[in-house]
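Why does residue order matter? Because the sequence determines the fold. Keep that principle in mind as you read this record.
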Amino acid sequence: QLQAFGGGLVQAGGSLRLSCAASGRTFSYYARGWFRQAPGKEREFVAAISWNGGSTSYADSVKGRFTISRDNAKNTVYLQMNTLKPEDTAVYYCAVAISERDMARPSYWGQGTQVTVSS
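Structure:
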């Protein structure tokens, strides 16, 4: 089971840190990622990280503002979001895939956490 938390309401320019903790099994050797879905839009990729943290990838819309990281000892992945914009408002979901390049087809999805950025 994957549980995302850390969302909330923040003003534009602010920061939030999302966490996604896994329970029931270990995902140390899987890639971890984040997606988001805004109202009326399809779910989109945000960021991914390889099993050992050696490789990361980001959507162009968040590059330079968001940072994905992981702590395998805690079975947790994080998304540090800085300089937030109103267009970042969405429900954020964490995901697990066999590898970073397979993140387009995650094997597991977590519950979402709402992020709302006010202007």
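DSSP finds no helices and eleven strands in the chain.
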